[in-house]
Amino acid sequence: MAAPEPEAPTAARSRAKDHSPWNWLLFIPIVVPLIPVFFNADSPRILGFPRFYWLQLAYILLGVATTTLVYQMTKKRGGR
Q1: How many domains does the chain have?
Q2: For this UniProt entry, which segments traverse the membrane (predicted)?
Q3: Which of 1, 17, 37, 38 has its CA 20 to 30 A from that of 29?
């Protein structure tokens, strides 16, 4: 049985060479939830939920917003 031929690595290389400064924004949703001072209190409560719980939901939204922004700013534009 013959070994399969390797695929052209051009697509993988072009993605790996993306050194856009926008990519640094992806550290925000990683680092911000690790700062313990944000969880250091019970108040304010939103809809009866303590700060810890609604901050977890806010961090999800922060991650989605940051990822969307970085994607929109770094995606390759078509030949238009």
Answers
A1: 1
A2: 22-41, 53-71
A3: 17
